[in-house]
Structures are given as structure tokens and as C-alpha cells.
Specification:
alpha/beta; Enolase-like, domain 1; TIM Barrel; 2 domains; 9-stranded mixed β-sheet; 3-stranded antiparallel β-sheet; about 15% strand; globular; binds magnesium ion
Length: about 425
């Protein structure tokens, strides 16, 4: 079996409202590049990649000459072909490798007639639990509704999400407003859901002293962990020695070198495994095994996904014995998907692991065309910019917080 073609299509799928985060904003939509790898046996495997609001089509066009004629089952060889760690100094292709790995695993699963989870060791669970993943939101430009800015709005929003999807873990994405204000918001959530689990993620933007203040301010709550309060292994290590709750990261341990450093000199307790950041599903399974050996916690991270990448997260979540935390997904913030059957549906806060061969999801060609058109109409957006603060950029540690009293509506095109 040989790869005969590689195609990439950029799509834009709307979000319910613009999602604010410490580094900027998701401007009311996700831009994703859908990858199709075809074989000479007629199989088509699916991959997906982000790109900070921009298209990655050109990258995959450029890789076609690398891939055509290759055997999609040679996954380890693929790693060195696309992301050899020394060659990648000039051209880091880790996330590109991930999209191709998803597609090749999808092909292998279809060829063997088994879901990817069976290639990875077999399902330990049939469904993966997820967290709410709450964001501060700008109002929808269309109608001015959907804002999440105040503690009251946040609690009401969380109550709606919990009611609709059944979540019992709530992650709040912070790093937008001054830390004392976000602490108030987080504590309001804890008071509203005293039996649920909580986690908070300010995208590494605090000083170590600010991290210490916040951590001490939440020690009495049901925290899974505090995620990336400060930047760098040394910053995290400094903080970890002074607080009494676990620290998690999807930022400073995203490869095996960093994982080794964290084992030798512990700075982080819980490693959030992202199928994109780590270069595929298989590296995440390998990393999870190392975490098991060294008794580090793990969870499944979300870097913004449509149904294809979500399927990779579900197969990963299905096979990890040491997955004790709910996974993260941006998925429920989307209004639609590009896969057959429409959006996957949560039940009791969990998503069923696909059991069909390969990834277990197929492209809906009509939706793909519809959202390709939407990308062509709206174009890219700068993920690391705030639409209402032109010229702004956060520093690390950050002091340039948004104003919690600012209730303006953006004029983002929709
Ligand atoms: Mg994070």
C-alpha cells in the first residue's frame, strides 16, 4: 500500500461567540486545515491541523513530494521523514507530522478493519469524560448576546453547559482580566457547583508571586490542578515548592526532552497530552507510559478541534490506563462540524469512542464545501490579537489586563 495523493482544504467553522484567552481571542470561528491522504488501494485517511487562525494548505502541498509513494503503515519512519529532530531546527513540522499521522493511522485502521484504539492497545473505556472548558466571551457581533464577563454571567453560562452536556468538571480559561478579578470569578463557580471538580488556566501569564497569591486563594476548593500559572519549568518548580495543589501544563512539557527534564527535576505534576503538539496520537501514548512509570498525572489537552481531531483525542483517551482527569475540548463551542452525522453528542459529560474502522469519522463533503467557502469569504484571523485592543500584546509576566467593566461589542465580520 502506497500513498498516492495528499490534499488539504481550509475551512472556517463558526463558534457560538468570540472566546477570549490570555494571548488574544478566537474571533468567533475556528480556521482548520483538513488533510486527506489517499492510497493506491483507494483508502482515504483524514487529518486536521490548526494554525492560529490561518490556513496551512500550502504546507501540505509542499509535503506531497515527500509522501507520495511512501507506505502509510511505516509510522516511525514517517516521524523521521517529516520531523527529524535535528532537521526540524530549520522547519519545525511537529504539528504537520501529527496531521499526517492521524491520516495514516486512519488508513491503517481501515485497511485492518479495526478502530485506531485497537491499534494502540485496545479500549479501556467506551466513552471519555470531558470538562466544560469555560471562556470569557465577547458578545456575538450579530446580536450582542452571549457575553461572559462577570461572575454572574459565568455561573449562568456554566449552568447552561452543565445542563445541556452533563459536565461535572469545569475548566475556566483565564489570563484575560486582572488575577484578583478572575479569582473572584473562579470562586463564584466553585460556590455554584460545590460538588464538581474545577481547574483554571491563565496561559502562563502570571509572575511567580501572582501565581502564589492565586494558588493560595483557591487551596480550599475542589481543584484538579492549576494549569500553566507561570511560564517555564523553573517558574513552575519555584511555585510548586510553595503551594499545596498540583500543577499541570500543556506548554512547558510538550516533548520527550522536556518530559525527561521534568522527571529529573520535577516542576509539573500533570502533563496535558495534545495529539497535535506532541506530533500525533502515538507519541502521546508513549508519553503517557512514561508518566505512568514516574507517577505523573496525565490528561487530554485540546488545542481547538473539529470532529477529525476530536476523534484522535477520543482514541487516545480510550487507551490510557492512567487517565484519571476529564479531558478538555473546545468542541462544544462550535456551531457545526464537517463530519458525517453532524457534531458528536455528549452524554453525561462524555463522548463515545468511535468503534468504526480507523478514526471512525468521515467527511461530509457538503459541509466541507460550505465551510471552505466561509473561509474564502472571511479569510484568516490573528489568534494572538484582541479585536477590541488593537496594538495590544501580553508580556510574560503580564500586566496589560483587559478591563472587566468594558462591555463593548466587537465588529468581527461573521
Ligand atoms: Mg492550557
Amino acid at each position: 500500500m502506497k500513498i498516492s495523493d495528499v490534499r488539504a482544504t481550509t475551512v472556517t467553522v463558526p463558534l457560538e461567540a468570540p472566546l477570549r484567552h490570555g494571548n488574544g481571542c478566537h474571533w468567533g470561528r475556528f480556521v482548520r486545515t483538513v488533510v486527506e491522504v489517499e492510497t493506491d488501494t483507494g483508502l482515504v485517511g483524514l487529518g486536521e491541523m490548526g494554525g492560529g487562525g490561518e490556513s496551512s494548505e500550502a504546507v501540505f502541498r509542499g509535503l506531497k513530494s515527500y509522501l507520495v509513494g511512501r507506505d502509510p503503515r511505516r509510522l516511525e519512519e514517517l516521524r523521521f521523514l517529516i520531523a527529524n529532530p535535528t532537521a526540524s531546527l530549520y522547519n519545525n513540522r511537529t504539528q504537520i507530522l501529527a496531521a499526517i499521522e492521524f491520516a495514516c493511522l486512519d488508513i491503517v485502521g481501515q485497511a485492518w478493519g479495526v478502530p485506531i484504539s485497537e491499534i494502540l492497545g485496545g479500549r479501556l473505556r467506551d466513552a471519555v469524560p470531558f470538562a466544560t472548558y469555560l471562556f470569557f466571551r465577547y458578545p456575538r457581533p450579530q446580536d450582542g448576546a452571549g457575553e461572559v464577563r462577570t461572575p454572574e454571567q459565568l455561573v449562568e453560562y456554566a449552568r447552561r453547559e452543565k445542563g445541556e452536556f452533563g459536565f461535572t468538571t469545569h475548566k475556566l480559561k483565564g489570563g484575560v482580566f486582572p488575577p484578583a478579578y478572575e479569582l473572584e470569578c473562579y470562586r463564584a463557580l466553585a460556590a455554584a457547583f460545590p460538588r464538581d471538580q474545577l481547574r483554571f488556566d491563565p496561559n502562563c501569564l502570571w509572575s511567580v508571586e501572582e501565581g502564589l497569591r492565586f494558588a493560595r486563594g483557591i487551596e480550599d476548593l475542589n481543584n484538579d490542578y492549576l494549569e500553566d500559572p507561570v511560564f517555564g519549568l523553573n517558574g513552575m518548580r519555584w511555585l510548586r515548592q510553595k503551594i499545596r495543589l498540583p500543577l499541570a501544563t500543556n506548554t512547558v512539557v510538550v516533548n520527550f526532552e522536556q518530559l525527561a527534564a521534568n522527571v529529573l527535576h520535577p516542576a509539573v505534576d500533570v502533563i496535558l497530552l495534545d495529539t497535535t503538539f506532541w506530533g500525533g496520537i502515538r507519541p502521546c501514548v508513549k508519553a503517557a507510559s512514561l508518566c505512568e512509570a514516574f507517577q505523573l498525572g496525565i490528561s487530554v489537552h485540546s488545542s481547538g478541534e473539529l470532529g477529525i481531531q476530536l476523534a484522535t483525542m477520543l482514541h487516545l483517551g480510550a487507551v490510557l490506563p492512567n487517565l484519571t482527569f476529564a479531558a478538555d475540548a473546545h468542541y462544544h463551542h462550535l456551531t457545526d462540524d464537517i463530519i458525517e452525522g453532524g457534531k458528536l453528542r455528549y452524554q453525561d459529560g462524555s463522548l463515545r469512542v468511535p468503534t468504526e474502522p480507523g478514526l471512525g469519522v468521515k467527511l461530509n463533503r457538503q459541509k466541507l464545501a460550505e465551510y471552505r467557502e466561509l473561509y474564502r469569504r472571511l479569510g484568516p484571523y490573528p489568534y494572538d490579537q484582541d479585536p477590541l485592543r488593537p496594538g495590544w500584546t501580553p508580556t510574560i509576566p503580564n500586566t496589560r489586563w483587559a478591563d472587566p467593566h468594558d462591555a463593548r461589542v466587537t465588529k468581527i465580520p461573521v
